[in-house]
Fold:
Amino acid sequence: MNLAEPSAFRVEKYRSDAIVRLTNGAAVIGHFFLAKASPMSTGRERVAELLNSESGFFPFENQNGQTVLYNRDHVVCVEVSDDEASLDSGYGVATARSVSVLLSNGLHIQGMVRVYRPEGRDRLSDWARHGPRFRYIETPQSTFIINADHIVYAREATS
Structure:
């Protein structure tokens, strides 16, 4: 095999900027490596897909250019600057709820969640009980992908 030839097993990746907040209080700035074609949906792979795809460790490149393996169990939340939540199918018709959430690391987030449940079963309590482990909270500044295992409380926010 010629070393200049690309591998048939190579997956084209792109970098996605993020801040990973861990249970030890660390906030790690860096990049996720995501596939240009999602294995689960149309379009590019998203951070939430990567986090929900399996258990255990995932690679993340920190500011120093080092790739570190982080354990999903110790990720409280991830902050991304793009609006990847809007790429979910059904986003436009899902019930939007204004929420206030306190996470186990003390971070308090106020934003919007989308509840992908049938009418009458689209309350905040339904969002809290059903859905993937890592889920979105959208704020005007950024999108948070929170680990549901680290939610201390969630309540409807008043305007």
Remarks:
- Strands lie at 13-22, 27-35, 57-62, 67-71, 75-80, 95-103, 108-115, 134-138, 143-147, 151-156.
- The chain has two helices and ten strands.
- Helices lie at 47-53, 124-129.
- The mean pLDDT is 91.
